[in-house]
Amino acid sequence: MTTRSSFVAAVFLLAVVGTCGERAAGQTVPNGEALFKAHCAMCHNDAATGANRAPSPAVLATKTQEEILRALESGAMVIYGNRVTEAERKAIAAYLSTNPGNSAAEASANLCQVKKPITADGVARRENWNSWGVDIANSRYQAHTSIGADNISRLKLKWAFGVPDTSTAYGQPTIVGGRLFIGSGDGKVYALDAETGCTIWVFQAETTVRTAITVGPAGNGKFLAYLADGEANLYAVDAESGMLAWKMKVDSHRTARVTGAATLHQGRLYVGTAGNEELTGGDPDYPCCTFRGSVTAIDALTGKMIWKGYAITEEPHEAKPGESHAKFTPAGGAIWDAPTIDTKLGRVYVGTGDAYVDPAEDGTDAIVAFDLATGKRLWAQQKTPNDVFNFGCLNPQRINCPPQIGPDVDFGSSPILQDLGHGHRVLLAGQKTGVMYGLDPDDGGKELWQVRIGQGSGLGGIEWGSATDGKRVYAANSDISTLTGAAPPSPGGLAAIDIRSGKLVWKTMPPEPACKGTAGCSAGQLAAVTAVPGVVFSGSMDGHLRAYSATNGKIVWDFDTTPEFKTANGVAAHGGSMSGSGPTVSGDMLYVTSGFNVTAGMPGNVVLAFQLMPSGTGSSY
N vs C: which end of the chain shows fewer Cβ within 10 Å? Predict the structure, then answer.
């Protein structure tokens, strides 16, 4: 899946370090410009960007030197970064960006003078938004809020927080016990006062944290915040103080990473694992490919692994003659999403990504069910067979790639489990093909219905997450690129689908972007959707967060997140494209991040907090 956060953010460095590792003979002081122009500009230019999914020099210039070095030294590009010297890495970063970054100093700005303690009552509040989908069914529906269709016009900006040293605002705000928890691109995790935005504590993980934070009890009045990073490390941090309680490696594969939030249920954490091997498969020297997506059950108090289940059940092996175009097979089936829990049947559901090598096993591009107690894979419903893709497919020599390149159409968002009444249930699953499926969890995932809301592609269709109010599922469509021919349809759109019949109730296309003509601007809607009674929120790549009437799809509120904002911590900040995470709602407040320029989009680094103001009053911002 080539659109997943820091994995794809590192794509822009593939050519840089894959080919720029060749040093000029006799050169003692590395020349970043010469290295880039001689070996990298072939891919990183405006004409080639679309075909190679590599950002242009203008996009690279928006990143800080710290961001680039992180990718080379401890992020997804570490395999390539290790090929060059430290001086050469710094030279490349300095040429690509003139902004050195200053995250260490800025992280400690605006510390709270009074730190309200986390209490059991605070953690138990129904209006909290904990983890990714607000509940273990991943509904992304907040019923316990005063925000609704009749007062949405009174939702005003209250405060803003600038995330230091980033051009993409990673993470989704978690709101628990009066605190906001959020990760960032440099591995810092912030605990903020949810009312004011002041900083309570900062925790430093090893690398990028883009998972939503999950908070749970640890006994004796203590609570732990769980997070994971881009090297598949899982952390338990004291939610009160930010001190590390324990840390463990979820997966030992060298390309493994965690992008979806841990789901907490009855003392266990369920964590999906994705990988960067789709990228490294483009390296002719890499022994491609052996990574398999997995779900791991972990004791929430101790960090001890209980079980691990793989989306692809067959273990990778050296390919036999004629079996594969890669050295090893099978591989792929990354799990990018937060697992969904079925307490009735004792199961865990996840969506999986494409295969990295041929042949594509049935656990790729599928919804997969695991036994909650043992991790045994129970069934897999594959919707796109033979979807094989890695970055070797972009090489004219087709390294590790079959003759037919797959469309790269993962299930990248969490399945949603819903009760239909009278003994019937449905599992709602959106795919990058642009199709929403209704599956029967009580009959091995048998398809009940499907409806198409977009054309789909590796950057199209349903990307990050949908929401349901128990009657309809609300799905956003990207289609910033599609699988169609020369005249693709307009990108974007939010659709409402009846979850019982699969009937398309309404679909609202976005207005023409005000930022049209700006690099990275698009009307595509990739960000996860959030619903409250009567209202659906969807962020756009044009930087606007819009609220839609759940009844008819009419846009009833619109906020442009792209301007510069005065921030609570004094860090210069502005919004940009909205992708990945979605808004979170708690009580009379709504929180959202803005800024995304990975393979596409406009940069930004802001967290925004909105509050429902009394009638007749303006913003408190």
Answer: C
